[in-house]
Design a protein that fits this description.
The strands form two sheets. The protein has a seven-stranded mixed beta sheet with strand order 4-3-2-5-6-9-7, with helices on both faces. The chain contains eleven helices and nine strands. The chain has helices at 17-27, 46-50, 63-70, 90-94, 110-118, 133-140, 150-158, 198-210, 216-219, 226-231, 245-258, and strands spanning 13-14, 34-38, 55-60, 79-82, 99-104, 124-132, 159-167, 172-173, 180-187. The radius of gyration is 20 Å and the shape is elongated. Helix 8 crosses helix 11 (245-258). With 261 residues, the protein is of the alpha/beta class. The chain has two domains: 7-187, Vaccinia Virus protein VP39 (Rossmann fold, 3-Layer(aba) Sandwich), CATH 3.40.50; 198-258, Helicase, Ruva Protein, domain 3 (Orthogonal Bundle), CATH 1.10.8.100. Helix content is 35%, strand content 20%. Strand 2, helix 2 and strand 3 (55-60) form a beta-alpha-beta unit. The structure holds S-adenosylmethionine (SAM). S-adenosylmethionine is lined by residues 9-14, 38-42, 44-45, 59-62, 65, 84-86, 104, 106, 109.
C-alpha cells in the first residue's frame, strides 16, 4: 500500500539516487562497522547501507514504515527497532560495540537528538546527518562568524564538525521548503573535553549568547565580574561570537573555582 507521508514525523523521503550515493560515499561503511540509522523511512539509504557488509540497526518511530521495512527481503539481516530515537538507551543498543550513527533526520528532533547522542559520545565513533542547511551552518560556524552561537560552541566543544555538502529541496518527496546539508561529527576523546563542569559551561555559553549584542561584561554580570574576566586574559568588552571555544571553557572553569562543590 502506498504510504502517505506524515508531517508530524518530518517525513521527506530522499528520491535522488545521486544524493543517496553521495551520502553513502561520505559514510563509507565498512564490513565490521556497527551502523545505526535513525529514521530509515522507506529505506532509501538503508538498502545501500545493508549491502555494505556492515552490521545495521534501524530505529523508526512510524509503525507502518517499520512493518514495511520488516517485510523487505533485502533487509532480513537487519535489526529493526520501532521506537522514538529520543528514548533510546545507547548503551543497550551498542552492546559493547561502538556505533556509527547516520540518518536523514526529521528537522523537529535534530537538535535534541544531537544532544541525546552526545550524552553518550564515548559510545559513538562518528555521525553523518542530513539536516536543515541553516542548522548545519550554525553547527559548523567558526568563531568570528555571524552564525557562531550556542549550538556551535556546545557541539564543537564535544566534536569535530564538518559541513560536507548542500542538498536541494528537489531531492525529496514531498519537497521541503528549505535547503538541507549533510554534516559529519566526530566526537573528541574524553580527555580533550576538559571543562571541569559541563553544566557550568552550558550556563556560561547560554548567558553569553542570550543577547548576542551584549558584551561579556554585561551578559556574564551575574556570574563573573569584569575584573575576573580580564584576569583570564579575555576582554570583558568583547562580544560572545569573537571568543574561541577554549575561552568559554576558561570562563566555565573560573566559575567552577568559585562554585561550592
Ligand atoms: N531516511 C529516509 C529517507 O532518507 O528517505 C526518511 C527520512 S525522513 C526525513 C525522517 C524519518 O524519521 C521518517 O521515516 C520518520 O518516520 C522518522 N522519525 C521521525 N521522528 C522519529 C523519532 N523520534 N524516532 C525515530 N524515527 C523518527
Amino acid at each position: 500500500m502506498k504510504h502517505r507521508p506524515r508531517k508530524r514525523f518530518g517525513q521527506n523521503f530522499l528520491v535522488d539516487s545521486s544524493v543517496i550515493d553521495r551520502i553513502v560515499d561520505a559514510i563509507s561503511p565498512q564490513p565490521g562497522d556497527h551502523l545505526v540509522e535513525v529514521g530509515p523511512g522507506q529505506g532509501a539509504l538503508t538498502r545501500q547501507l545493508a549491502g555494505s557488509g556492515a552490521q545495521l540497526t534501524l530505529i523508526e518511530i512510524d509503525r507502518d514504515l517499520s512493518a514495511a521495512l520488516a517485510a523487505d527481503p533485502a533487509l532480513s539481516e537487519v535489526r529493526l527497532i520501532n521506537a522514538d530515537v529520543l528514548k533510546v538507551n545507547w548503551q543497550d543498543l551498542a552492546r559493547g560495540r561502538p556505533i556509527r550513527l547516520v540518518g536523514n533526520l526529521p528537522y523537529n528532533i535534530s537538535t535534541p537528538l544531537l544532544f541525546h547522542a552526545l550524552a553518550s559520545a564515548d559510545l559513538i565513533t562518528d555521525m553523518h546527518f542530513m539536516l536543515q542547511q541553516e542548522v548545519v551552518q550554525r553547527m559548523a560556524a567558526p568563531p568570528g562568524s555571524k552564525a557562531f552561537g550556542r549550538l556551535s560552541v556546545m557541539l564543537q566543544y564535544r566534536c569535530r564538525v564538518e559541513s560536507l555538502f548542500r542538498v536541494p529541496p528537489g531531492a525529496f518527496r514531498p519537497v521541503p521548503k528549505v535547503d538541507s546539508a549533510v554534516v559529519r561529527l566526530r566526537p573528541r576523546s574524553a580527555d580533550q573535553c576538559q571543562a571541569r563542569n559541563e553544566a557550568l559551561l552550558d550556563q556560561v555559553v547560554s548567558a553569553a549568547f542570550a543577547q548576542r549584542r551584549k558584551t561579556l561584561r554585561n551578559s556574564l554580570r551575574s556570574l563573573l565580574s569584569a575584573d575576573q574576566i580580564t584576569q583570564l586574559d579575555i576582554d570583558p568588552s568583547a562580544r560572545p561570537e569573537t571568543l574561541e571555544v577554549t575561552d568559554f571553557v576558561t570562563l566555565a572553569d573560573a566559575l567552577a573555582d568559585q562554585s561550592p562543590d
